Fold these 3 entries.
Entry 1:
Amino acid sequence: MKFLAPIIVFILILIHPPITHAQVVFDNVYATRDVYNFLDELAQEGLISLISVVKPYSRSLIQSKLNEALKKKDHLNKRQKQELSFFLRDYGLSDSIPDALLIDLLKHNSNTGFSIDPASFNYRDDNFLFSIRPVLGLQYFSNSNGLTYHRYNGAEAFADINNTLSVYASLVDNNESQVMSKESYLTQRIGANYKKNIHGTGRNDFSEMRGGIIYNFDYGHIGLVKDHVVWGNHYNGANILSGRTPSFAHIRLHLNPVDWLEFNYIHGWLVSEVTDSSRSYFDSDMVYREVFHDKYIAANMFTVTPFKDFHFSFGNSIVYSDIGVQPGYLIPLLFYKSVDHTLNSTYNHSGQNAQMFFDISSRQLPKTHLYVSVLIDEIKIKTMFDEENHRNQLSFKGGARVSNLISNISLTAEYTRNNPWVYRHYISTTTFTSNMYNLGHYLRDNAEEYYFAIDYRPLRGLLLKLSYIQARKGEEHEFVRPGSSTATPFMEETLWKKEALSFKAHYNMFNNFRLFAIYTYSEIQDKTENYFTPPFLDGIQNTISFGFNLSF
């Protein structure tokens, strides 16, 4: 079974001839927000069509959308034209080496050189494209609780072979003076598997390895990658798949056979961190070797475009374990809950953990994006509106963004509600988690959030952003098996509450180099003795953060 993915790729290579799509590699989804926001702005202007429910976007998709906008350049304002040229210096790499070459390694060879924008070494000819880039960053935080920092370094590279096969890899080592991203913390910082207090120095280290190999064909691509997965339209945290977990390996399939239909599928190898005592053991030196239960996810997403700039997406997922890699879950188009009913008894609790979801995105109103994203963990139609007996385990997100009613200004409003027990499960090996981090919304169950933001972009590369968040979370009740209890009230008691007003300024000097500074006034009330909150951020704080990012 472990050889199935390479066999599928090999069969597709035999069936499909090489085509012109290239660079189906994925930048870090948390490092590409500027180009994502620019594409979103262009889509709201009606200059490009954009399906934004599944991220990260591939470099080839970003390039095609930038080229689409280039054909309508006359409709852009001065700043947008500069942004377009700026991003094309990076994402148009398959067309030419960036102009700012510092060194020509091979004399009289214009295919090779170091570039300053983006900072990289690049090679390109008719059959092969290669780019390697440094990764470096530093962020300091300061408030009344003291000073802390996050620093990192590494490298990333990608290549495209004959416009058919794409490969990429990124390795980043991280160090934090204080742990800022435990699995219980209610924060959108990327999850990590820490080595804490290294050699008693107080250092907390973790590394993140991303990469993959992808085969491109004329209406899609398939690949084996280790990366983040973000599903659901949002501007402040997705509620279907948030991408906050440490990256995990998965098969990724994307199909776009006609203009009105897009399909995405993943089959992932999650990390359960649940000890399998039958396979754990003491070795010859009496060192205990702890082995975890295997854990997997299969998920699909269909996106239909019945009208221009209106996208309806729907799909389902299943988290499963203890049966190996199940062939039924490797079939991309299936409804996995029904497969589970066939494979497992419905009476002895041997079943798996299934979810359904849908997402509606509309950019039909001028300069406006309206969206709704819903994940359904469990719902019963006959008791849906019965306040005492309903079991509506669902997460709802709805919002709107309006751009350029006033030139270069965007306004965003978003609301999220997560009902009790959504994302939860009573079997420890099939919870909606990887490395113990929730796969869904960062607030988890029994929580809600209001988010408002004003983005102002007066110059190319400069963002001034004012945002306000009001979020609260109730008790994480002991999970009770479906059918054995009445409803749990929503937010009966508030255990954690946050209000934060934040001002952010960042400047993209080059495509992969950014300077930033952030001021945040926050009030966090945590009745759980910092189970939900890093101690550094607890209470009333005026936090100043500043630093730089290179390729991250």
Entry 2:
Amino acid sequence: MSSEHRRPPGTGPQAAAAPTGQAHQPQLNGLFASFLAPALCLSGPDGQVRPGGACGLFVEDRRLLSMLVLQVDGAEPSPLTGDIGGGADNSFESVCFNVGTAIPDPTLLLTRRRRVLADGLQEQYLFRSYDRRPLRFTLGLRLASDMAEMAAVKSGARPRALEAVADGDGLRWSGPEGATVEVRAVPPPDVVGAAEGTLAWEVEVAPGGQVAFGVTARLGGEAPAGAVVRPAPSGTSLPAVSARARDPRLGLFLERSLADLSALRLTTADRPGDVFLAAGVPWFLTLFGRDSIWAARMLLPLGTELALGTLRSLASRQGRRTDAETGEEEGKILHELRRAPTQHDLWRGEGAPLRLPPAYYGTVDATLLWALLLHDAWRYGADEARVEELLDPMQRCLGWLTSSVERRDGFVSYVDESGSGLQNQGWKDSHDGIQFRDGRVATAPLSLCEVQGYAYEAAVSGAALLDAFGRPGSARLLELAQALAARFRNRFWVEDAQGAYPAAALDAAGAPVDSLTSNIGHLLGTGLLDAQEESLVVRRLATPDLDSGFGLRTLAASSAGFNPLSYHAGSVWAHDTAIVVAGLARCGTVPARQVAASLIDGLLGAAEHFEYRMPELYGGHQRTERPVPGPYPASCRPQAWSAAASVVVVSSLLGLRPDLPSRRLYVAPMDGVVGLSSVDGLRVGSSTVSLRVGEGGVVEAQGLPSGLELVVGS
């Protein structure tokens, strides 16, 4: 993710104009999204796409339409409801008070149905009359296109609208690189106003009757130069998984999330058969190393195909050389892939713009997470021949790990050598994402605590894969892991009045960055900590200093730099909390399960307030003081790993741990959390499995692969 997020002015239907002076990232809170990667449409909750802010129809990081406003007899309808649907579909209902009999009750109802296509959108406008007389009115659409690049929109730019030309029954705009946007109407409009960018129909509706109109907007012209992503193959979707529980929030969260995740699937132009998940709407509809890997890892209970597609897509772009400008290194997995270089003209800590090349490798953890995803996919039953094909890139990942540890003080560290890339390269990648308890921003090179946990687990998991497939090198990896754990134990632990805990990082001077953060929860289950150390981490996670009641704060409330509406210094990220929940479930102790249960309740509470479309992040206010989670103004929604948190909750409630190479499926259900009774549609190897959870943690399984043993218990 990028680090240039800042609190912007509102851009909703009644929002005031942005103040002059410094540009702001446009607000996303309150906007409705419909999407089918790599296309999306953002509108107000009434369905109107008004100029300004982030609203618009985007395809492949271009804004094809910057305005799509409907009017009836020159006035906008009065909105009633908006339904975010799931994935590609939205619908909006409104009434037209300015048409029909002059009585208090409206008699003309408009239903606006929107469906995003992979290269544009379709909208239908259905008018229903409840008047006793024929109704006559003018339906008008006002349209505009600026062909703005996504990075410019994100930086708060306001590009000039392009000139439209009449094109048969619609309008057309031409932009850079030979791209066009073409709008067609059905039935043909009575008036096409190219100079004004308008389409108009003279409409008559019989008493009690209905009429429908529609428009389609599509990317046309020549293929955009350098396009790197494509829609997932048509006719495919994520496997359907459902959960039944006493608490209905669990099933609703899972259902909405899976619909959104299915619409976030992409492939690259050069590998159309390998599907992965885009990171999120609207800014990150492309391949992201860390985000795509984490999302695929969290969704392994749905099968291994997404994991394998993600692994292959990233392996095809694995680093082969050293390049300070791109951050590329031998064996490294990239951070993000774009069609063209991007510049974000907001903040990079000291006011310098962030400039990223099309293939950017500024991430310290994606390489380690790639190896972990391969190992976990193998444990979930991925075809061994396909796993073996990926062992060479895995060994290059582990070679990068080894060289990183050797050249930087015995830990995996990062520093931006380019001067224009991400200053922080862990998942908290904003410029102030890593700070001391007193609020000082830590100076790179930085060694993040959670990255050392990933490194330890990657070394051990890589050794297991090498042994399983008869390859040498496992002993050296295990030695590296043990030495890393010893160094971590000696260097990372700090104390305060409440006892010991791991520091967030080591800074450039090797000093522990002593802030208390959610990062420490990522260490659970990696093997880096011993049982006593894990218990200390569990105890800290349970405190209200970190647990907001709606999930874990990224930075403890006791820190000087705490801000509940900061990007990484006090806000709550659903994926972050979900990763910690999974780690707590792996610990298996009673205290760990109690903390996991509390965090699960917090996530479900937040999901309920966000209509089960979990945002990228939200405010870290205390739930007892603010009973509704506070929206973060510029939060992406949906976000792949936030939606995937729903699957992590389900698998953690089950205590699900497949080990197909050993022919075992381990489950250890949590009692009394949400009253989980069944989960259907899980994928274990090539089989579809259902699990029934009874009183006292009794589990029954249907559809298990032949010869697979079900092991129930901690």
Entry 3:
Amino acid sequence: MSELAVVGEAAGVPRARQMLERARWASRAFATYDRASVLRIAEAVTRVAEDKAQHYAEWAVRETGFGVVEHKVVKNRLCSRGILDTYRDHDYVSPRVDADRKMVELPRPAGVVLALTPSTNPVSTVYFKILLALLTRNAIVISPHPFAKESCSDAARLLGEAAVAAGAPDGVVQVVEEPSIPLIDALMTDERTDVILATGGVPVVRAAYSSGNPAIGVGPGNVPVLVDATADLKRAAEKLVSSKAFDNSLLCTNESVLIVEEAVADRFLREMERQGAYVLKDEERDRVRDTLFPEGRFDTTLVGKDASVIAAKAGVRVPGRTRILVAPFDLAVGEEPLAHEKLCPVLGVVRVPDARRGIRAAVAILRIGGAGHSAVIHSNDPRTVMDYAAAVHVLRVTVNEGGSTGSAGFGTHLAPSMTIGTGFVGRSSLGENLEPKHLVNLTRVAYSVDPSEVLPAYDGMVPRGTSAPLEAVPPYPVASNLSAPTTDTDTSGGGTSELREELRRLIIEELNTIIRG
């Protein structure tokens, strides 16, 4: 590493402190906003995000080389207008009065959210996490994956500008434009970071959990899908192929291994072929396996590539309409590479004599990877569905729907999300799909159960200092020669002069770092 690179990385540490101080100021100001103001800001940001869905889908595919533009457009819209429409009627701002339980609940935002976003679902995850933060009156710092930093940085800046134009505090949305290890480490370990949302690979999630700050991380998937003899085979084939082909399998909820009951296996595979699947012959499967897993490790250069690209690299000729490759194998064991997670349109398939054996095979697939994540089943037998759900160690089982979008809450009534919690079994602090409620704590004001204690009238009351701002909050920090009024939101007792002194100190520290280099 060059001396210049070392200096640049070292200089990122004071930059992280500046970003977090600005975010803390914004979060304290934002915490005083009422619900109408929050919704106005969220609506303004959603309009901009929705309008740019196509633009950023094209940019993300161009930058990363992953996925399908039209499918990323769908994800961008689901994670903008779809998220706002889902949570518009939820109130994460106003006090809640429960007269029967003699309790008042005051929503308390987390504060400063650090959001790590992946390269596989880049802009849609940026959209999703920014809207969750805004709906809950949190400030957010986006740290994009280096492979997608240009599209994600531009999207985050645009949404941040829209939020401020609609009245949000300056700095409520920030983005790390040049990620580096020291900078990200400084952001994760600084006490001003109130919670980390880690979406990405296992090392990223582990780093978040070891940061010393609260973190919500998720584990990898390896989704089994069971098709039993009672399933509607034509419908199941259409759902499965469409799900596996969606954005070339970049969602971690995509199906990885098909387990099909022997009695219907041939018919089902023919139905899948009608939907654009290509079932590999044994020698073709071996070539695809060796291409995908050279020396037993997944070739990450094939993440999100078209089925035809993967087939061509393996020397396999497929029809032009091929959407996914289906690779039969015999045993669901860890030594079989095709039994592992595959973020590309290649679906492993094993045959089983009956549904009971199919359930055991699904359990075996999840022992290899994907514990706590997701599973799919196509069946019209409620007993089989119940037994399957009880046996597989996952926290969401999608029935008669594609896993890619269904387990992510699009096409089912699960919470729509780009962050899938895997719970205790998956070593995650989150046991469900991430949604706004996870970025808010409640201060509960609880009265005595003694009948003589009567709950006073709290209806319509809001905490002192909460109000709808008439105009945008002054930019941070406020220059000393301006007389614009400011909201006293610094609960530590300091004011803007202290913040300016901190900025001066950080700037001097950064200059000294460069000089010493």
